[in-house]
Amino acid sequence: MMVDLGAFSDEKFDAKKWINTICQSRHPQDPLEKHLADLEMKLQMMSEEIAASLEEQSSSAILRIPRASRDVIRLRDDAISLRNSVSGILLKLKKAEGSSAESIAALAKVDTVKQRMEAAYETLQDAAGLTQLSASVEDVFASGDLPRVAETLANMRHCLSAVGEVAEFANVRKQLEVLEDRLEAMVQPLLSDALSNRKVNKLLVDALSNYKVDGVQDLRGILIRIGRFKSLEMHYTRVHLKPIKKLWEDFDLRQRANKLGSERHDVERLSSLNESSSSLPTLPFASWLPGFYDEVLLYLEQEWKWCILAFPDDYKILVPKLLIETMAAMVASFISRINLATGEVVPETRSLAKGILDILSGDMPKGTKIQIKHLEALIELHNLTSAFARNIQHLFSESDLQVLVDTLKFVYSPYDPYKQRYGQLERAILSSEIAGVDLRGAVARGVGAQGIELSETVRRMEESIPQVIVILEAAVERCISFTGGSEADELILALDDIMLQYISILQETLKSLRTVCGVDTSGDGVGPKKEMGLERKEGTHNTRKVDMISDEEEWSIVQGALQILTVADCLTSRSSVFEASLRATLARLSTTLSLSAFGSSLDQNQSHVASDDGTGKVSLAGRAALDVATLRLIDVPEKARRLFNLLDQSKDPRFHALPLASQRVAAFADTVNELVYDVLISKVRQRLSDVSRLPIWSSVEEPSAFPLPSFSAYPQSYVTSVGEYLLTLPQQLEPLAEGISNSNGNTDEAQFFATEWMFKVAEGATALYMEQLRGIQFITDRGAQQLSADIEYLSNVLSALSMPIPPILATFHTCLSTHRDRLRDLVKSESGNQLDLPTAHLVCKIRRVNLDQ
């Protein structure tokens, strides 16, 4: 049995726990007493061994103490000696420091004088050299050795910079500028010829002079030597701009040739055109543009490869500069062609040779509107340019980031006028699209056709909602496709305005439905009442003549009115889903456009929008942020700030992408609820309109000579009509509940919706009835008996509908069913505490019972 002594060194050592662990580890067949005895013996032997080892180690340590003491004393003496030696050395250093400081100061003065003398000597040499160079420069020019001329002029400029602003050399400075211009003029024809013939290292011989130099590399070196690199850029661009412009002008040649051929008025003039152009068929600009981009891209790829050999230090600047100058020269024509191409897709604008910009500026016949086809054509052209821009970004991937950004901005520059007015453009298209939705208001028809008109109008309203949402979703897609999201702030404003316009049309349609349903209100309300969360007044209504229409017509009107609720529910849900989708789109834009916020400082800190691949070059993968939206926002920091504020706000869960439209949708739902409620309560209002003035309340029993049996009063027709109508409400609401259940699959929600509306109408009917009861001025015992029967019937109807009986109505019933002689005692008794006392006093007043007696 092995014993581990490591556990004894633990600060939390528990002897009982250790013994129990040892006992658990014994063999099951070993007796516990034997195991513990063996353990005790081993521990005792180990303790004896430890004590013996400790005694041995202590004796050895005691023997080593005297030797250690002697070593300590010797080390102390050595330290004292070393400290004395160091103190002597420090004293000598301090004495030497004072004398050496004076020597160093003197040497510094001598060195300064020496440097000044050397500078003066070099300046005198430069002045002498400048004089000599100025005198011999004409001979150098006469030699025809252009590199030597460049070197001479460079030396003259160096000497001028050395001598500074000396009056004696002012004329030399002017002479130098003239000489540099002269050398540049000599180099220009050679450079143009070298660039045109792609001569890199071949010998160039000018037939009209004796100038002999190598190819463009030496010519570049000459221009660089005299600080005229801009001249190289200018000549390179001028030489290579012509072929690209010729490609661009080919489209106009095609159009002109086709026009002349179609008119057939000038055959000679047609034949004088370029045969290759006149024989080609006419192509729309959108079909011609991809070929142009392909040819330009091929030309630039060839130039890029050639410039790598000819200008290994400058090709990253020269070729992008060529494309920038090309786009700058073509931008006005490009914008015009885009404008005409967008007008070509619609016959109305094609016949007038006008486009989007003309419509936006108002330079069109009245009634001409921007159509969605115009914008789709614009987006198609923009997509072609985007593909070209991606190829350019790949081709120029080795260029500096700022050069690449400037180049891509020029590539997209023809679309800037359209993007600047994108909000106006999209708003015009959406307004036209909304105007095309069938939202005719309801027209009042004769009896028997009102239900049909109501149903058709509600159907048009309900079908228009998904159509409008699809129109708005398409606008969001167009914005992302055309602008990459840079105009999202303008789009949000346009969408909000269009939603307001659409909801206003729905509100006007609701007004026409009120007329068809016969629930137009007049303003003589009798008291405020809070229903459905809205403050409104129950008043006299120009209700439809219930007795003049059939039950089928009334049923169809009620069903049509209930269907308006589905319109409100559909508008609320679809607008909510669209707004959530809009927030998700803004969230994606917040991620994709986050890097563009640093666009205005690209030249200062490129690390914000690109990554270094370790070779000193910015990798192409790190430039994914250079999309169309980023390039648009770089030059408009105020717009970028507004857009990013919007994107930051969209991260808040309480954010409404369409704030005004959200409020108007809620208001529309409230208006729909009010209309439906007025329709459902209309029959009740009609039946109860004159209850307070019924003559039966003041009637008395006719005297009779014979004793007649007393019969229980039956409820009158007005209350039975109301009761029957309330009892049929569940049946009326059943189709609506089924429609809701089928649309969202939630049966419980549909049932709750129907029950809620049933309660609203029942509560409203009860409120109207109680208002009429309060308006009774006097009631006889016979009238009280009849009214008690009427109230009892209505109470039974409410109970059948699982509605509680209002305390006021219960008080009316109790006080009216009580004999007049016992009414005072009832009100004053303890049971009177269960009554609504103001109502009980009112009934006593109506029954002419004096409570003061």
How would you sum up this structure, described in words?
The protein has helices at 15-24, 32-143, 146-163, 170-196, 216-225, 229-263, 267-271, 275-278, 285-310, 315-344, 347-352, 356-361, 372-395, 401-412, 416-420, 422-435, 450-483, 488-517, 551-592, 628-634, 637-649, 659-688, 717-744, 747-774, 781-800, 807-817, 820-828, 837-846; strands spanning 204-205, 212-213, 519-531, 534-543. The radius of gyration is 51 Å and the shape is flat. The protein contains 28 helices and four strands. Helix 3 runs parallel beside helix 5, helix 6 runs parallel beside helix 10 (315-344) and helix 23 (717-744) runs parallel beside helix 25. Among the domains are: 231-412, no CATH class; 423-596 and 658-663, no CATH class; 690-846, no CATH class. The strands form two sheets. The protein has a two-stranded antiparallel ribbon. It has a two-stranded antiparallel ribbon with strand order 3-4. The longest helix is centred in the N-terminal third of the chain and has 112 residues, at 32-143. The model is unreliable at 199-214, 264-280, 522-547 and 595-623 (pLDDT under 50).
